[in-house]
Amino acid sequence: MKPRPSAANKAALLRPGRIETVLLALVCGITALRATYIEAFQVEQTFGAGILDKEVISLMFSTILFACLLAYFLRRILQRPFTWRTTWFGWAALVFAAAGIVAAAAASDKRAAITSLVTLLAPIAAAALLVQGLNTRGRIRLVLLVLMATAAAAAAACADQYFSSNAALIQDYEADPAAQLETLGIEAGSLEHWMYEHRLYSKGVRGFLLTANSTASFFLLALFAGVGLCADAASSLKHLAGKEKEHTLAAMICCGLIVLVLGAGLFMTQSKGGIGAAAIGLLLFAVLALFGKRLWKRRKLLGILVLVAIVAGTGLILYYGIMHGTLPGGNSMLVRWQYWVSAAAMIRDHLLTGVGGGNFSIYYPAYKLAAASETIQDPHNWLLSLLSQYGPFGCLAFIAAVLLPLRKAARHVFEQAPLPVQTEQTDETKLRFWLLAGVTSLLLVVRPFLTDVQTLLAENAQSAVFGYIILYLMPAAVLAGVFWLLTAASKGDESVKRRPHYLVIALVCGVTALLVHNLIDFAIFEPGVWSFFWLVIAVIAACVHNESPEAGSAVLRKPPKLAAAGVILLSGAFLAVAVLPPLRAHLLMYRALRADSGRLTLLSRAVNSDRLSPEAAFAAAAMLAQNLDRLDAPLRDQTLNFAELAHRRDPADFKPLRLQAQIFSRLADIAPQGQWLAKALTKYEEALARYPGSDRLHFEAAELADRLGRSQTALEHYRAAVEIEDAYRHQFKIMYPDRQIISRIGQTNYQTAKSRIQDLSAARP
After folding, report:
1. pTM greater than the 0.85 cutoff
2. Computed from CA positions of residues 26, 27, 32, 36, in that sequence, does the dihedral angle turn out positive or negative?
C-alpha cells in the first residue's frame, strides 16, 4: 500500500504550472469582457443581422470556458496523480444541469433552452477551475483586483453617462427624432416610442451593462471585495511596524480610494434596490465582523428565526399584493407584482419541469395581465425565474450550489483556528502579467467586434479613430491603470500573508446583498454579473482551501483509464448539439440576407442546419413575406412552409401563428380563389389562445372577421380589444397621472374598434 502524500506534497501537486496560469488568466479575461458588453438575452435582436449575434457570442464564450476546464482536467489526468479540490457546489451544479436538461426536453423552444442552460453552466464550470488555480492568497487577491478594476472602468462609464453622454444623446434626439427612431426600429407615436423617450429623459446610468440595476449588482460584488481587502489590511496593521506597516497602509489607502469610486458608481446608477442591498450587506458585514463567532454558536436558533422571518415576510408581501393589486414602492413595484402573479400561474401549470431556460418570454403572453404595459423576458425575481424555467429541482439545486460554499466558509471563519503567518514569499509576477495582458487585449481587440465595429468601419478614418479611443481604448486604459495601481500598491503588503478573515465575511455579505437585490430584478442572470458572481463563489471556496491545515484538502485519486476519452467524447457531443447547429444557421442566414443570387437555397440550408431552432425558419418566412406579391406560387408555398415549420419548432409562441395569419390575409388579395381569409382567422384564433391579452391581435382578428361577414365573431374581438386597451389606459393613468395617455393599439384603431362595436351591436336583431 502506497503511503499517503504529506500536506507539503499535496500543496506541490496542486501548484499550477504555466498552462494553468494561462487558463486562469483567460477565464478572468473573458469574465471581465462579459462585464463590459451587453450580452443578455433580454435584448431583442434581428436573427442574422450581424456577423455574430448574442446567442452565438454567448455560446462561443461558454465553449471557451468549458474548454479551459477540459484542458485543466486533461492535464491533471496526464500529470498523475490526479488532483482536484472539492468545490462544494459541484454536485449541486450537476443536479441543476440535469434539471435543465429535463426542462429543455419539455420546452417549447428547445434551442433557446439549451443555449440558456449552457450560458448558465459555463461560469459555474469556470468557477470550478478557479477553485483549483487560486491556491495562494496572492492569486486570490489578484483575481479580486481584476474585479475591482473592471468595476472602476464601469464607474468611469457611469460618470460619463451621468455628466455628459446622456445629455448629448438627448440633444441628438431632439435635433432629429425621426432619424434616431428609424435607427432603433421604433414607430413614431407608438407605445415603444413613448417608452424610449421615458428611458431617455430619465437619464439612466447603466455603465456597460443592460440596465442600471445590472450595473448596481456588479458594483455590489466589487464593492464588498474591496471592503474585505481593506478590513484585512486594517486588522493586520496592529501586528506590524516600520516599512511593513507603511506598505500595508499604502495598499489599504489605495484600495479604499477605489472602494469610494465604486460606491460613487453605485450611487450614480440611482438603483434603489442596489443601494438598499448594499446597506443591508454592510450592516450584515458589521454584525458578523463583531459578533460572528457568538452568532455561529447559536446558528441553529438563528437559522430557525431567519426561516420564520422569511416565511412571515413572504406572507405579508403576498397579503399586501393580493389585497391591493400592487406592492409598496411606486410604479416599479406595481409592474413587478403583475410579473410575479403571471409567473406564479406559469409555475402552477409547469410545476415539475418548468418551461425551460430562455422560454419564459415565450410562455409569458399566455399569462400576462391585460393591463400590463409590456411583455418581459424574466419575472424580475431570481427565485421565480428559476422555478418557472427549471422547476423546483433546478431552483433547489441552485440554492444548494450557493449556500454550501457559504456555509463551509462561515464554519471555517468562525470555528477554525487561524494558521500561522506565511513566511514564504509567493511570486505572482507571471499571473499578474497574464491577467493584465489578457484582459486589456480582449477589451481592445475582441470587444469592438462584439459591439458596433461595423458602424466604426463605416465612418471616415478620423471618426473611426476617435470612436475607438472613446469607446474602447479609454475603458481598457482605466481598467489597466487601476489594476496596475492596486497591484503596485500591494507590493510589500503584509496582510496577504495573514488569514483573509474579513475578506471571506465581506464576500459572503456581497453575495447575500446581490441575492437580496435580485429578488426584485433579473440582473443576476445577465452574463457579466453571473460570471463575476461565480468568480466570487470560487474565491470563497479557494480561501477555505488555502487556510485548511491539510494544504487545500486536495482529493487525490487515480482516475479511470478511459476518463480522458470519455471527457473528449462528451465534449464532441456538446459541440454537435449545443454549439455547431446555431452557429451554422446564423452564418448561413447572414449570407442569405446579403446574397444577390441563390438566396432561397441559403435560407433552406439555414433552416435545416438547426432543427431545434425556430428562429431561422421564422426569419426566412418573414423576409419572403415582405415581397409576397412578387413571388410565384411555389415560393409562396415555401414561405408558408417556413412559417409552419417555425410554429412546429416553437408551438407555444404566438408570433409564427400571427405571421401565418398575415401571410394568408395577403394571399387573399393576391389569389382570391383560395379560402385564405378563413385560414387566416383560424390562425389568429390559435395565436390568441397563446396571447389572450393582446389588443392588437384581437383587433386584427376582428377586422378579418368583418371582411368575412362574421359579425358576431368580429364583435367579440372588437370588444376584447377595447376592454384590454381600457384596462391598460386605466393603469397608465394611475402610473403617470400627469402624462397624456399613449395608446398601445393606436388611437385610430381604438376609435375604429369602438365605432364598429356600436355598428355591429345596432345591426344585431
Report:
1. yes
2. positive
Q: Taking a C-beta distance cutoff of 8 angstroms, is the pair 643, 618 a contact?
A: yes
Helix/strand/coil (H, E, C) string of 91-121? HHHHHHHHHHHHHHHHCCCHHHHHHHHHHHH
738-760 burial code (b ≥16 CB/10 A, e <16): eeeebbbbbeebbebbbebbeeb
Considering the chain, what percentage of its residues have pLDDT values greater than 90?
Answer: 61
Q: Quick one: 333 exposed, middle or buried, by C-beta within 10 A (0-12, 13-18, 19+)?
A: middle
Domains and CATH numbers, the chain: 26-557 (no CATH), 579-763 (1.25.40.10)
Quote the cell numbers at residue 645: 415549420
Give dist(CA 393, CA 95) in Å, integer. 8
Residue 170 pLDDT: 74
Q: Which secondary-structure segment (H or E) carries 484?
A: helix 474-490
Separation of alpha carbons 703 and 718, rounded Å: 8
* Low pLDDT (below 50) residues in the chain: 1-3, 13, 42-43, 423-425, 551-552
Q: How far is Cα 238 from Cα 231, in angstroms, rounded to an integer?
A: 12
Provide the grid cell at 364.
Answer: 409569458
- Single-letter amino acid, residue 1: M
Name 83's bridge partners: 556
CB-neighbour burial class of residue 648 (10 A; exposed 0-12, middle 13-18, buried 19+): exposed
